[in-house]
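**Backbone description:**
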Amino acid sequence: MLKSLHSMIHPSAIIAPGAEIGAGAKIGPFCTIGPKVVLEEGVELVSHVALDGRTHLGAGVKLFPFCTVGLEPQDLKYKGEDTETIIGARTRIREHASIHRGTVTGTGVTRIGADCLLMATVHVAHDCQIGDGVIMSNNVVLGGHVEIGERAVLGGAAALLQFVRVGAGAMVGGLTGVTRDVTPYCRVFGPRAEMLGLNIIGLRRRGVEKAQLHLILAAHKFIFSGPGVFAERLAQARDEYGDDPYVAEMLEFIANPSRHGLITTLARDGEG
């Protein structure tokens, strides 16, 4: 259903009956759009974009050439169920990125938040949940069911194991293999990810002032490299630092169930 004559659709584009095209959409050459796809106002498909399944693109989303969104997951258990893909408003997805729909053995939906940037050849597998403002550099690959918190940054060619969680504001270095969970606002790097400390630059960009930054840094050092047993340090950190919202978020993330466990080893050159 075409909602506005002001939408610009190239004559070579193939749009299945039932697809909903919002006002002001731009659909470039050789794009294909399946019957259950919904494009909100101002979506732009530059060219050669393939959309299928129950896929919803928020207002102002822009997809670059050879992206695929909402196609069948690479999961042998998938039997054609009517699962979903949702992309938040203003997110930009660059060339050759692939984003697969959810599965009934997962949440049933693959979700990417608003204002994200996924660079060229990123792969987001089925049932991943990506928060707002996330940046993924070229060649990042996410296994199924991965969760990424808002405004996290993933460096080029980082690879994340299925069911891994990356907390809000975390930084994953390039060429990093992530097989355990990354605590919010932390930095990890290495062939098998090690913690390097806090993502101080990211915290400053959030407007965290110097005094509060020192408090968060002290809490981080105590949690991950203080004396005694880890569980005991967590309890003490709640008492001493838990009033700070960033520290409280870190502690809540650590307390939540984890399929693979946390990255708790602080590398020698880590400042946190």
Notes: The longest strand covers residues 194-198. Helices lie at 200-205, 210-225, 230-241, 245-255. The longest helix spans residues 210-225.
